[in-house]
Amino acid sequence: MKLRAGALLLLWLAAAVPAAAQTEAAPMATHQHDMTPADEDLPPLGTGPSVQMTGALGDYAMMRDASGTSWQPDSAPMEGIHGLVGEWSTMVHGYITGIYDHQGGPRGDDKTFSSSMLMGMAQHSLGSGHLTLRGMLSLDPFMGKSGYPLLLQTGETADGVTPLIDRQHPHDLFMELAGVYSTPIAQGASAFLYLGYPGEPALGPPTFMHRFSGMDNPEAPIGHHWLDATHITYGVATAGLVYENWKFEGSIFNGREPDQQRWDFDPLRLDSASARVSWNPSADLAFQVSYGFIKAPEQLEPGINQHRITASAIYNRKLAQGNWQTTFAWGQNNQQPGPTSNAFLLESAVGWYAHTIFARAENDQKDELFPPGSPLDGHSFDVSKFSLGYVYDIPVGDHLSLGLGVLGSLYALPSALDPHYGSSPGSYMFFTRVKLR
């Protein structure tokens, strides 16, 4: 692991704790990750600052908000430290994970690296509604432009010339810099506008690192580019309506995925569009369906556009001393010109006291497992991956925990891939994590 990355983020986290706890007058009450909507009464929309934020898009509990403008179940846990800075309600959350990664088989590799994220939010009443500002940064660029080994992963590039295959690209330094304003327009209804550079359009389920069922897993899903790869896009505007437990929204955004220069800002374009309908029928359920036209998402395939369809369901159940969440998601990419392919994901995580067990099963149709010029380039293969992991979190301070974890994965591949991946490849990770709580 690059020590400078770890040192920088640890200093970052250390600075974030007192900043989140600052108030003008009295000591602040803090709320940890086991909050639920029943923990305290929330103020009506736009009535002034509170330690507890309201939902960014309307008059509902903030626990419903996930990445971008996506929704999760209202009963889902919300990690982070909440406070007041002047008249702004604030929230800070972050982690840094040190990982030893072994990917087996002829195409496998080993690497020790770190992944990280620091997110801050601030909310203030404005007119009849409220303004929410969000920022999210990562020191993932320190892991190098080629990211980390991950069998069967495809998408993006490390050098602008060759595609990344069997590797997961790093996130950009700037993952989200966005603001959203919402205002009531009728009883139980609100309108909102979200602007981000970068930001996340209305397309797909909550990003894997922001849903409880996936956030403890240190690996990205291999179906990431069918489901939620647009979670970092350099230019997005989303407008929508919330009516009770329904949300209708549409986005214009930059369809090009971030390039290999992970420290800078990519050019602003608004050349793609998406629409999403979300429904939370109860506190424990969240559904969404979405469609997007994505113009030339891959830098190395500038003439190929995508039509993407996704659907997902998230079930969350609050336990006496923990939480259980399961996500099912489907995504379809229709290349223009090119084939149509599908990805399916089922993941679940159960946490109680300091223990968390998480699992993920995926089945994808992959046609980018071989580089241009290979006889198998463009051939589609039906591949499956099964992962199981465990993490134990130890409190090391009022707002910090130290997690120790392990993850193992097995694969089901067609026999045509045996010469390249082996007949029964496997992979594993050992990781340790420092997290704000």
Quick structural summary:
By secondary structure, the protein is mainly beta. It has one domain: Porin (Beta Barrel), CATH 2.40.160.
Defining traits:
437 residues, Porin, disordered N terminus, mainly beta, 49% strand, 19 strands
Explain this structure.
It is globular, with a radius of gyration of 21 Å. It has one domain: Porin (Beta Barrel). Residues 1-50 have low confidence and may be disordered. Helices cover 6% and strands 49% of the residues. It is built from three helices and 19 strands. It has a 16-stranded antiparallel barrel. The chain has helices spanning 3-21, 224-227, 418-421, and strands spanning 81-85, 88-103, 109-126, 129-137, 148-157, 163-168, 174-186, 189-196, 236-243, 246-253, 272-279, 285-294, 305-319, 322-336, 340-352, 355-366, 381-395, 400-412, 426-436. It is mainly beta and 437 residues long.
* Strand-residue proportion: over 45%
Shape: globular
In CATH terms, what is the architecture? Beta Barrel
Number of helices: 3
Count of DSSP strands: 19
Q: Which topology does CATH recognise?
A: Porin
- Quote the distance from N terminus to C terminus: 23 Å
Q: Strand sequence of the main sheet, in spatial order?
A: 2-3-4-7-8-9-10-11-12-13-14-15-16-17-18-19
